[in-house]
Structures are given as C-alpha cells and as structure tokens.
Amino acid sequence: MFRFDGGSGADICLRPEGTAGVVRAALGGGLLGELPSRLFYYGPMFRRERPQKGRYRQFTQFGVEAFGPSHPHADAEVVHLGVRVLEELGVLSKTTLHINSLCDAETRARHREALLTHLRARKHLLSTESRDRIDRGSPLAVMDSKHPGDRAALSGAPRLLELASEPAAARFRSMLTGLDALGVRYHVDHSLVRGLDYYTGAVWEFVTGELGAQAAVLAGGRYDGLVGALGSRADVPAVGWAAGVERLALLRAAVGAWTPAPSAPLVWVVEVRNRRECSSGAVAELCLKMAANLRYAGLRVRYEHFGDTKRQLRQASSASASVALLFGTSELRNSTVTVKNMRSGDQTEVRTGDLDEVIARVKAAAESRDDSGVRG
Ligand code: HAM
Asked: Could you tell me which of 144, 128, 143, 146 has the C-alpha nearest to residue 213?
C-alpha cells in the first residue's frame, strides 16, 4: 500500500488496484441491480514497491470485471478476452498463460494445514519473511516467493489441486475444457497463488520472459466473495483481470502496429434451454466456439451462459443486438445455427461450418437495422 501522512492528520492511502474500487462504485452506483453486469476501467494505480524496469510506484491499469456469471466457461471467456487483447497488441506469442485454482474454502483450509506442516519441517531453509508468514499461520504467499531458500523448502510441497474437493476439481476441469474449445494454450502452474486475498477460484497470469523479473502483463481470477464482503446482502459471483499499460508498452516496443476494429454489429449467442440451469456439454462448447470465431471476424458478441431462451432473447433485445444466434439440440444434430433477425423476427438456418454465411446474415440484419433508423 502507498500510504502516507498527508498533513493536518490526514492519513492518505492511494489505490493499489482497481477491482475493489470497481466493486464499491458498482454497489454505490446501483450497477449490480441488473445482473449480469460487465464493466471495464482504466487509470493510475499506486504501490509502494522498489522501482525497476517494468515496476513503478505509479502505473496504469486497464481491467475488466464481470459480475453475475458463475459458470466456469465464463472464466474461460474472460481469459479469452485477455488473449484477444494481447493478440491485437501483437504480443500474445511473447507470453505464456499460467493458470491455477484456489479451489474452494474447504480445500484451502485442508491445503493450509498440509502446507504449514510441510514448511514447519523445513523452517531452517526459509527467508525471515516466510518464517513470519508461517508463524502467522498464513503460508499461501510463501508459494509465490522467489527466495532460493523458500524455493528449496517448497520442493515436494502439497498442491491445492491435488487436495481439491470434487466440486472444485470439476469446476477447474470445466474451465480448462472451455479454454481447450477456444484453442487457448495454458500451463497449469501449481505455484501460482497471486498476491491479492480476494480470489476464490481460478487464477491466471500472462507471463513474459522479455521484461526481466517483471513477468506478468495481464492477470486476474475469480473472486466470488468480494461483493458480499464489501457490503452487498447477496453474494455476487465475479471474475476479471487487469493489465499493466506500461509493461504492455515495453513488451510492444519490439513489435509492429495494430488497427482497432471499427464499431461492429452486436450478436447475441443464445443457448436454447427451458430451465434456468447453467450451460454445459456439447451445445455450450458450440456456443463458445461460435462466439470466439465471430469475435475474430470483428463482430461484437455476447454470450451469457445463463437463463432460459426467453430471458436470453430479452437481454439481446434490450441491448439492441442485431441478431441472435440460437443453438439447441436440434441445431447440434443438424450442424446448423438458427439466425434470428432481432428487428424483423425472421429466422433462417445456416450451416455452422459456413462461417462466412453466418457473418453475411449478421451484417445484412445489422444493415436493415441501420436503414430503419433504430439505434442501440
Ligand atoms: P495484479 O496482478 O496485481 O492484479 O496487477 C495486474 C497487472 O498490473 C500486472 O499483471 C502488471 O501488468 C500490472 N502491474 C502491477 N503492479 C505494477 C507495478 N508496480 N508497475 C507496473 N505495472 C504493474 C490486479 O491488480 C487485480 N486487480 C486484477 C484483477 C481484476 N483480478 C480480478 N479482477
């Protein structure tokens, strides 16, 4: 924390990151009344760190936070948004995605005891800071340490995912299936625990070898307890990430220019289902892939993993989507997608393999919308 005496008894603390502030602003400003709510932010952050290349006391972050979606595929989609940002900046190939899960409270408690036992038996190897952590009963941060003695003590230490409860393990597997479906490459890193206390599930970092010790350029995770902890009566599932602008600029120094996509039609991917159940299985994977492919084609795409067909179409309509793409079991059987023009209500079936045709239908629907003077 960058905390100092501001004079006249003023105790000043500058914000070290954006997530907690976004949650407070969203709670105070009523932005969580209607879920899901997807927010982004940009601005200066401050940390009392020892400055060096890529590590500053004042730096700039931009970040995204999704409130409401709890499905592990939503985690995969949020990670994929990071992939696309890095790709557009031309630096993705210079990074590796490290990913781990902090599992659930039950697993974390079991892991904490096992890790404490392991590290207490090797206390003589530990740095003073890590010894303090052991004495305070909070050993998780030791896993993050770069100190050679700490690294030696951690050899053979118990891993969170090896002690994971079945629901936590299944959640993580499902997220990885989503990443696989999206073609995102990752490295499961059992030592990744992140320095912030609010994480409750998947955590990840895009790490680069080009910036010396300051390796992470974009990082985040799931934090289902923070909204409740900051005063909401109901818990709100949340997932997001932030990226360091200066580190991205340093990383980009060696790479070429990029052009941002112009404003594009909005497409709503709808998973056809009757009950209010979470998405899973082959139809969900088809939705994930279609959403990703259309984003690559430069379209704006939303897919909410939640709610019955009617609810999803209502959301599409209130967001002024040009088109809804409906996927259900019959579409899966026939390898088709139903393209619904949200203005006229017309529906046509297109083969899912024919992406060009899907895109052409979306563009035609968007143009007919523009002609009518209707605006989102
Ligand atoms: P973080 O990993 O602490 O996460 O910071 C995110 C990014 O900010 C880092 O990957 C790095 O690029 C940049 N950064 C951090 N510290 C510095 C520094 N001293 N100098 C330059 N760049 C820096 C968070 O802040 C979380 N709020 C991310 C998040 C959002 N989790 C969930 N939602």
From this structure: 146
Report the alpha-carbon distance of residue 184 to residue 192 in Å, rounded: 18
CA distance 129 to 135: 10
**Tens-place pLDDT, residues 247-300:** 999 898 866 544 445 577 899 999 998 765 666 688 999 999 999 999 999 899
Q: Indicate the SS3 state at residue 375.
A: coil
Query: Residue 306 has what pLDDT?
Result: 81
219 touches ligand 1 (CB under 6 Å): yes
pLDDT confidence band for 375 (50 / 70 / 90): very low
Mean model confidence pLDDT for the chain: 90
For the chain, the C-alpha Rg in angstroms (whole number) is: 23
Q: Which residues pair with 238 in a beta bridge?
A: 67
Q: How far apart are CA 108 and CA 202, in angstroms?
A: 13
DSSP conformational letter for 199:
-
- This model's pTM is above 0.70: yes
Phi and psi at residue 346, to the nearest 5°: -60, 140
State which of 59, 94, 97 you would mutate to test the pocket of ligand 1, scoring each by most atoms of that ligand within 8 A of its C-beta: 59
Helices of type H across the chain? 19-28, 72-88, 105-120, 128-135, 148-154, 166-181, 226-229, 245-252, 281-296, 309-318, 329-334, 355-371
Total length of the chain:
376
Asked if residue 101 lies in contact with residue 161, where contact means CB atoms within 8 angstroms, the answer is: yes
The token pair that represents 83 in the structure block: 């992939």
Q: How far apart are CA 322 and CA 302, in angstroms?
A: 12
What single-letter amino acid sits at 60? T
Q: CA-CA distance, 213 to 165, in Å (whole number)?
A: 34
Q: What are phi and psi of 57, to 5 degrees?
A: -85, -30
Ligand 1 atom nearest residue 220's Cα:
31
How close is the Cα of 365 to the center of ligand 1, in Å? Answer: 40
**What's residue 98's pLDDT?**
97
Q: Is 247 in the pocket of ligand 1 (CB under 6 A)?
A: yes
CA of 218, closest atom in ligand 1 = 10
